[in-house]
Amino acid sequence: MSQWSQVQQLEIKFLEQVDQFYDDNFPMEIRHLLAQWIESQDWEAAANNEAMAMILLQNLIIQVDEQLERVSQEKNLLLIHNLKRVRKLLQGKYHGNPMHIAVIISNCLREERRILAAASMPVQGPLEKSLQSSVVSERQRNVEHKVSAIKNSAQMTDQDVKYLEDLQEEFDFRYKTIQSLEQNDKNSTLIKQEMLALQAMLNTLDYKRKEVLSKIGRVIHEIDVLMSNMLTEELLDWKRRQQIACIGGPLHGGLDQLQNCFTLLAESLFQVRRQLEKLDELLTRLTYDGDPIPVQRPQLLEKVNFLLYNLFRNSFVVERQPCMPTHPQRPMVLKTLIQFTVKLRLLIKLPELNYQIRVKATIDKNVSTVSNRRFVLCGTHVKAMNMDESANGSLSVEFRHLQPKEMKTSAGSKGNEGPHMVTEELHSISFETQVCLYGLTINLETSSLPVVMISNVSQLPNAWASIIWYNLSTNDPQNLSFFNNPPAATLSQLLEVLSWQFSSYVGRGLNSEQLNMLAEKLMGQQVSYNDYQLSWAKFCKEHLPGKSFTFWVWLEAILDLIKKHILPLWIDGYIMGFVSKEKERILLKDKTPGTFLLRFSESNLGGITFTWVDQLENGDVTFHSVEPYNKGRLSALPFADILRDYKVIMADNVPENPLKYLYPDIPKDKAFGKHYSCQPNEVSKPSDGGGKGYVPSVFIPVSKILNDSTEPHSPSDLLPMSPSVYAVLREHLSPTAIETAVS
């Protein structure tokens, strides 16, 4: 079943999450129509290879053309219209940057896998629950409702100001008419009546001026309260969701909604500002004793300007945190002299600002880091914000060619520190710009989340551990001295984040049993980890008991093994993986002989092994575990083929495959058959096979088990033996002779 077919079978709450990340950048109808083709392409590799990305983009357009031809024959007008629009988007938006569409599709596929993994989990983790609380959703709706109400109030006040302007013009006309009369005419009864009418009109003007100022004051107060409370909370929540998404959590949405709120509030404040300017014009034409405009207008204008300054300052955000295109799942880890990308957005989207705001990027500006290492940014570090590069028309700028370069120390050489010191140093990338609009000049600054600078890719795992710990433990965006005294983390939240590492990086998260095993490995015993606190040193710096590596290095090696060698088997859920030797024996002891399970090695880095259950002649149960396969051996032979062809030589017996059923009772070929590199053929004679006179050969993994041993004697020898040669051996040699030859 395709991944998209699985997505469509999800519950509505998960389908709503899927709906959030499909937009005009990558329309859902294309995902639906081209599901099989899209899933068969390597978008992640294309995201780091421009030539490959261009080929995939061209092939994607060809696929769209084929669908367009098909629906044209069916005369499906709506689908024809949508496909033409999508084709135009693909050609226009991504032709100059094909890696962008590869990144988008790769992210969508990865997020689908994360949601599928979350849907299969029995319970939602504490972090994800907090991000999706009904209280947060209710506040979002309240903010949007209040912003809309404020906009309507500002527009209604516009009508009041217009009425006041018309009333004053009528007063001016009638007053000037009386002023132009001769002195004798002014004493007439008619004129006296007109003067009384003018006085009444002046009283009305005074009342309307006070009313308009009162309404303007209320609008300003409502904006102030909204900005100080709910809007600030919304922005902080979005930034927290971004932090969590960066370490593998749910993709964060809501920035477009925030942009809509910020833009409407800015428009309302500028509208109020124009209303106050209009009142100033009316003041120059008419004033009187007790006039409220000269008293109240300056205070209101000062408040409006203050709110505009704050609104603009809060609206300047890092939309996409710094990330090397070569490591899209490891944001905020930057390698010296390697390009990274980062995207900024101004949430106040006004046409007057298009291409008018130039943003400058710097590193470690006005901050002191924990070491003497200093960096500069090479490449294009000043760019203009515009509305043309984003599919949704947001006012943004993306830096794609920045490179960090380490400066030499005063001693003339680069600072050299231990590996943990380097990966625990936090740095900040800052951005500054200036907005000049309607007589206002506002300086804006923002910064990325803390980044870790590495000079060698071997430092990447520990650097990523630092990023995980920081963003899990704090929502402070700029605590660069965090690792001077890193706080402990709640074990339940850490385990949730570890599951995200698997769902985001290798497509399938961890279930509660697997997480329990990790908890035991971290704590050294069975624990109730709901409120247990784990130290940073225990996670990443202290070696596991009896081992020469830390917990994190062990886990990272497993992630790398899955990604490069056993990914399809992991995604299918056939690798139990995290289970202790004691637990595996409990699981297997009552199973049919030949039942086996797959688990990751606890003693070897990046190793996977299998254990099967057997029964002795006296009825006793015995267990056999093969020496772990590492990436070196798996590079020579696919793991599924190893499971298919694996042979064991027991004393005085012919080689046979002991692996029959994958735990609990799945026939081996049913579980792994689709992953075999080729289907096993009937054994043939030497003369029957081979090309150019050669007999085709295969590697067959063979182990030998002695009578007095429960473990394979030579667990993972790969003996080159063709199927035909093996058949001949069985025909002409005794089992003892075969055993001697193999040994």
Describe the structure.
With 743 residues, the protein is α+β, with helices and mostly antiparallel strands. It has 4 domains: 118 residues, Transcription Factor, Stat-4 (Orthogonal Bundle); 180 residues, Up-down Bundle (Glutathione S-transferase Yfyf (Class Pi), Chain A, domain 2), CATH 1.20.1050; 121 residues, STAT transcription factor, DNA-binding domain (Immunoglobulin-like, Sandwich), CATH 2.60.40; 181 residues, SH2 domain (SHC Adaptor Protein, 2-Layer Sandwich). 51% of the residues lie in helices and 14% in strands. It contains 26 helices and 20 strands. The strands form 6 sheets. It has a 5-stranded mixed sheet. Helix 17 crosses helix 20. It is elongated. The relative contact order is 0.06. About 4% of the residues have low confidence. GO terms for molecular function: DNA binding; DNA-binding transcription factor activity, RNA polymerase II-specific. It is found in: Cytoplasm; Nucleus. One of its GO terms (cellular component) is cytoplasm.
Report the helical percentage: 40-55%
Structural class: alpha+beta
Q: What is the CA-atom radius of gyration, in angstroms?
A: 35 Å
Briefly note the CATH topology name of the largest domain: SHC Adaptor Protein
Average per-residue pLDDT, rounded, comes to 83
Main sheet makeup: 5 strands, mixed
Question: Which architecture of the largest domain does the CATH hierarchy give at level 2?
Answer: 2-Layer Sandwich
Shape: elongated
Distance between the termini: 44 Å
The total of beta strands comes to 20
Q: Provide the spatial order of strands within the biggest beta sheet.
A: 15-14-13-17-18
The CATH superfamily of the largest domain bears the name SH2 domain
- Estimate the strand proportion: 5-15%
Stretches where pLDDT is under 50 for at least 5 consecutive residues are: 412-419, 681-690, 712-725
